[in-house]
Amino acid sequence: MAGIRSDFLPHRFGSILFSIRIAMTRHLLPYSLCLMQRTQPYRDWSAMFSRIAGPLVLFALLTGLVSAQQHTGGTDTRTATPAVAMDPPVIDELHFEGNTVLEEEELLRLVDSRPGAPFSEQVLTRDIERILTAYDRSGYPFAEVRVEDLVPSAEAEPPTLTIRLGISEGLPFRIMEVMVEGNTLTHTDVILRETRIEKGELYDAEKVNDIRRRLERLEYFSRVDNPQLYMRDSSGGLLLRVAEGNTNRFDGVIGYQPAQNSDEDGYLTGLVDVSFRNLFGTGRQLAAHWERATRDISQLELHYLEPWVLSLPLNIGIGFFQRQQDSAYVRRSIDAQLRLMAGSSVEVGALLRSTTVIPSVGNTLSGLTRSSTLEAGIDLRIDTRDDLYHPLSGIMLRNAYSGGSKRFERSTGEEVSDFIQRIEVDAAWYQELLPRTILALALHGRELNGDELDISDLYRLGGARSLRGYREEQFVGTRFAWLNTELRYSLGRRTFAFVFFDFGYIYQSPDYTRDREELTAWRNGYGLGGQIETGLGIMGVSYALGQGDGFSDGKIHFGLVNAF
Predict the structure, then answer these.
(1) Helix-strand-coil percent breakdown of the chain, rounded to 5?
(2) ∠ Cα 360 319 509 (to 5°)
(3) pLDDT (0 to 100) of residue 432
(4) What percent of the chain has pLDDT over 90?
(5) Which helix (H) or strand (E) holds 137?
(6) What one-character DSSP code corresponds to residue 564?
(7) Does the structural domain 365-564 have CATH classification 2.40.50.220?
(8) Helix (H) / strand (E) containing 213
(9) Of 10, 199, 458, 537, which has the most beta carbons under 10 Å away?
């Protein structure tokens, strides 16, 4: 433990000069001297030693931590007697003085320095920190805790010690106003509502410390400082400083594939991604995504989010999705979502979605007919990550369930209705093992149940966002589970390099009327990659090998990064 050593500081008792070897941590000394708060280092060393030298001499004699040296008149001849190591003294009594907000019974529950326990300066330091934290949470951020006395007793074996702690609680701190600086675009009321602080509210350290994380999660700002307390005209206030970031993004890659022969026409390929995460500084969000990888596969998505409806922590979102798959069908869905922000890390959501599948003229997929599905669902999300794109610690849990009725007409003219259920589970854990070295684990599961499932209903797996080392959406099935494991080395705020290993389970239920065989498979992928924060956004690239692949068979996954 880092500490301050002051060797052989003299204190005279009669004709005996005692030289005391003191080894105390910086953390304990301020409390012993009853002068400073825990956030301020102690600097008046002469006053400190003059106060504690006498009690420490007696304490040191009792515990064998001192050597006695006799001073004989005008000469400075000293005879040293070796110190004898003894067991630490046992705490006989612990007293609190000055506490009115927190009762003595509550304080005793917070500390480990209880009567009967051996005395330890490290334990006492932690106890004082716990007491100060309890006062922080009770609205007294300027409370001080002092070690008033350490009273030893030599009558018992081993020696005992009585500890007396003095507490200056200070005045309660009520937050009468919140000031915001640096928001040149984002409306002040958008920031204030995220603090969840009401005027006149008693200071709560845990709640105030959580404000920075809340604001960073909005992804509006490039920098958010820790909140600062201030006093003005006998009223307490909270100061928030932010720096606006880039909340609008436009990324696109457009290509043209010329005709291969005279019977074909050329076609466009590419990707366009447009998002506005803070429209006009109001917190509203609008996003559009278009992608066409081949002539036969294209995808279009539109999303809009209205935050804090009726000034409640309630968000409403609507979305549109359309996918053309292999010139076989078009799947189109419209959804509405309602999300309640139940706490700083907890969200509860509800979903209503309508989906229509339209087969293409001349499609040859067995059992694929025009269908419509209306489903509703709920989900629970818990997210304690310290950063969405490069977390060093925290967890993310998501559990979703949806179910609904699918209606379609068979080729014979028979109308059919089937109940379809979907269960989705996502869990991720992040831990910094060494400086700059982070272990990231993510486990995902998907389950689809129903008696009349066609190819458009099935889940798809493979590619940069799921099982790396395989083509995008290479696998289809009714049940998936996959594990993503990454060992990351941090190179910047949201930049890191990593090695990874993915492992997946694939199951496809049989449906012989639709020519779908039962399939069970296990696949793994491994490789390396990196993530970099640029002016255009956060980009990721990885080189991945699937099971049985040679080096020349590796896949390069490149694109915009989603938070995993």
Answers:
(1) 15, 50, 35
(2) 55
(3) 96
(4) 54
(5) helix 121-137
(6) -
(7) no
(8) helix 205-218
(9) 458
Q: Are 378 and 393 in contact (CB under 8 A)?
A: no
What is the residue-averaged pLDDT of the chain?
Answer: 82
Q: Which positions ≥6 away from 228 have C-beta within 8 Å?
A: 238, 239, 241
| CB of 405 closer than 8 Å to CB of 374 | yes
- Residue 230's nearest CA partner among 239, 241, 221, 222 is 239
Rounded to 5 degrees, φ, ψ at 397 are -125, 135
Q: Which residues of 354-363 are buried (b: 16+ CB within 10 A; e: fewer)?
A: ebebebbeee
d(CA 182, CA 242): 5
Whats the size of the chain, residue-wise? 564
d(CA 475, CA 453): 16
CATH number of 174-244: 3.10.20.310
Q: At what angle do helices 205-218 and 188-195 cross, to 10 degrees?
A: 130
Instruction: Check: CB of residue 351 under 8 Å from CB of residue 361.
Output: no
Q: Which tokens in the block code for residue 191?
A: 């920031």
Between the alpha carbon of residue 418 and those of residues 323, 408, 423, 454, 510, the distances in Å are: 23, 9, 17, 12, 17
Q: How far apart are CA 272 and CA 207, in angstroms?
A: 40
All residues at 6 or more sequence positions from 245 whose CB lies less than 8 Å from its CB, including other chains? 219, 220, 221, 222, 223
Homologous superfamily (CATH) for 4-168:
membrane protein fhac (3.10.20.310)
Bridging pattern class, strands 475-477 and 248-257: unpaired
More confident residue, 272 or 397: 397
